[in-house]
C-alpha cells in the first residue's frame, strides 16, 4: 500500500476534525502531499468517519488522477490539488463547514485580527474570496474555488504561510499547514478565533483590530526568525 504513514496522518487529521466538532456527518475533508513523489492522499467522498481506515484513503497525483484506491476521492479534490500546485510550501489541506468560520464566509466577510489569540496564528485578517461567477459555478466549480483562493492571496500579496486559511465566499473555509496535523490544528484555531470575532463584533460592531505592534509581537514570537515560544527540544526527551 502506497504512502502508509501519510495515509495514517491524513486519517488522523480527518478524525481530529470530528473530535473537535468541526464537521457533521460526512462533511469536510483533509489531505496531505508527499512532495518527493508528487502524490496526494485524501479522504474518500461520502464515507462515514467512523468507518474510515488508512486503506480507504485515496492516492492521486498532483493533477487529481487516482494512483491507488478503489473509492472515489473527495469531491473537493481539485481545490486541494490546485492549492498544492500553487502554494509549494504547504504540506496538507483541510476543508470544513465549521459553524463560525462558515458564518463569516456566508456573510462574505474576512475574519479581522481583533486580538492576540488570532495574532498567534494568523498574521493579519483571514481573507475571503470574491463570489464566484455563474460561469465559474457552472463550469469547473471545484477548480474555480481553488483559483479564487489563489487569486485572493496573490492579488493582495498575502503570504499563505503567515495566513494559513481562506474563506470561500458563500461557502466555507479552507485551511492548510506544514503537515496534516498542523493543518487540522490551524482549522481548530480558525474556528475558535472566528467564534471570538463574531462575539466581539456583537459587543462592539466597530471594534478596532489589534495594533501592528501587538500583531507583530504575538505572531513573530511563535513564527518569526527569532521565535521564543516553546522549548528547544521536547519535554521529557534528551536535548
How would you describe what is shown here?
This protein has 239 residues and is of the alpha+beta class. It has one domain (4-113, 122-192): 3-Layer(aba) Sandwich (L-fuculose-1-phosphate Aldolase), CATH 3.40.225. It is built from 8 helices and 7 strands; from the N terminus they run H-E-E-E-E-H-E-H-H-H-H-E-E-H-H. The chain has helices at residues 4-19, 77-86, 99-107, 116-119, 134-138, 141-155, 180-203, 212-223, and strands spanning 29-34, 39-42, 58-61, 66-68, 92-95, 165-167, 173-177. It has a 7-stranded antiparallel beta sheet, with helices on both faces. Strand 6 (165-167) and strand 7 form a beta hairpin. It is globular. The protein starts with a helix and ends in a 16-residue tail after the last helix. The relative contact order is 0.15. The model has no long low-confidence stretch (mean pLDDT 95).
Brief overview:
This protein is of the alpha+beta class. Helix content is 40%, strand content 12%.
What's the SSE blueprint?
Elements: H1 4-19, E1 29-34, E2 39-42, E3 58-61, E4 66-68, H2 77-86, E5 92-95, H3 99-107, H4 116-119, H5 134-138, H6 141-155, E6 165-167, E7 173-177, H7 180-203, H8 212-223
Please bin the fraction of helical residues.
25-40%
Poorly predicted spans: none
Strand order of the largest sheet: 4-3-2-1-5-7-6
Could you tell me the radius of gyration in angstroms? 18 Å
Average pLDDT: 95
Q: Give the end-to-end Cα distance, rounded to a whole number of Å.
A: 35 Å
Tell me the name of the CATH class: Alpha Beta
CATH superfamily: Class II aldolase/adducin N-terminal domain
Sum up the overall morphology in one term.
globular
Which structural category do the helix and sheet elements fall into?
Answer: alpha+beta
Count of discrete structural domains: 1
User: In what range is the share of β-strand residues?
Assistant: 5-15%
Instruction: Please provide the ordered H/E string of secondary-structure elements.
Output: HEEEEHEHHHHEEHH
CATH fold annotation: L-fuculose-1-phosphate Aldolase
Q: At CATH's second level, what is the architecture?
A: 3-Layer(aba) Sandwich
Number of helices: 8
- The tally of strands reads 7
Describe the main β-sheet briefly: 7 strands, antiparallel
Amino acid at each position: 500500500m502506497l504512502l502508509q504513514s501519510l495515509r495514517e496522518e491524513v486519517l488522523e487529521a480527518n478524525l481530529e476534525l470530528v473530535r473537535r466538532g468541526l464537521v457533521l456527518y460526512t462533511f469536510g475533508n483533509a489531505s496531505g502531499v508527499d512532495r518527493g513523489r508528487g502524490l496526494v492522499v485524501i479522504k474518500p467522498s461520502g464515507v462515514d468517519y467512523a468507518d474510515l481506515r488508512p486503506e480507504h484513503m485515496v492516492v492521486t497525483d498532483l493533477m487529481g488522477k487516482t494512483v491507488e484506491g478503489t473509492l472515489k476521492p473527495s469531491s473537493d479534490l481539485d481545490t486541494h490539488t490546485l492549492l498544492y500546485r500553487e502554494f509549494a510550501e504547504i504540506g496538507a489541506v483541510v476543508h470544513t463547514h465549521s459553524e463560525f468560520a462558515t458564518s463569516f464566509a456566508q456573510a462574505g466577510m474576512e475574519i479581522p485580527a481583533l486580538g492576540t489569540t488570532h495574532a498567534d496564528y494568523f498574521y493579519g485578517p483571514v481573507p475571503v474570496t470574491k463570489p464566484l461567477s455563474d460561469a465559474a459555478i457552472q463550469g469547473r466549480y471545484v477548480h474555480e474555488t481553488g483559483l479564487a483562493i489563489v487569486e485572493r492571496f496573490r492579488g493582495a500579496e498575502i503570504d499563505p504561510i503567515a495566513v494559513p486559511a481562506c474563506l470561500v465566499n458563500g461557502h466555507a473555509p479552507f485551511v492548510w499547514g506544514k503537515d496534516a496535523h498542523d493543518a487540522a490544528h490551524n482549522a481548530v484555531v480558525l474556528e475558535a478565533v472566528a467564534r471570538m470575532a463574531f462575539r466581539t463584533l456583537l459587543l462592539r460592531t466597530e471594534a478596532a483590530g489589534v495594533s501592528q505592534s501587538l500583531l507583530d509581537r504575538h505572531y513573530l514570537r511563535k513564527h518569526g526568525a527569532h521565535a521564543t515560544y516553546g522549548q528547544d527540544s521536547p519535554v521529557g526527551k534528551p536535548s
